[in-house]
Amino acid sequence: MFCHRAKSKNGGRSLREKLDKIGLNLPAGRRKAANVTLLTSLVEGEAVHLARDFGYVCETEFPAKAVAEYVNRQHSDPNEQVQRKNMLLATKQVCKEFTDLLSQDRSPLGNSRPQPILEPGIQSCLTHFSLISHGFGTPALCAAVTALQNYLTEAIKAMDKMYLNNNPNSHSDNGTKGGDKDEKHR
Questions:
Q1: Which parts of the sequence are annotated with region: Disordered (predicted)?
Q2: Whole-model pTM?
């Protein structure tokens, strides 16, 4: 509550006066070292909560399968299939490398100060990003890239299904029950 008041008009002065009454001196002056964004108005707990909710919505509500099927219909030329699948697989790998790096971020958040595991150069860049976004940035990026990875997975599945439907001779089990069951769960 105090943090929000401090960010409001005359809030800084009011907060300084209250802190002064309990013996804490906070000199007046601008502390803003970065551009103001909507995230600036959030305290860390709110930003982290927003990122968590955004991640949940990306995970549960992003229509990865529908989007993948729609986009695949735009690229249904059989001559493009192998190249397109390779592009999807390569993109999925690059996204995995990116999220693997972000999952190693040990930026301080609130009172937690985790032990860094990344090289200091990259960790300081990630910490700066985390501080600027009040803890929202990295989890939000991870959520968005995870939604992209889910899309890529569904696009690859849809391509495989399209390939199987266009090439009925590619079934190695010649339509046995096991093959039907596999097809049902694609």
A1: 166-186
A2: 0.71
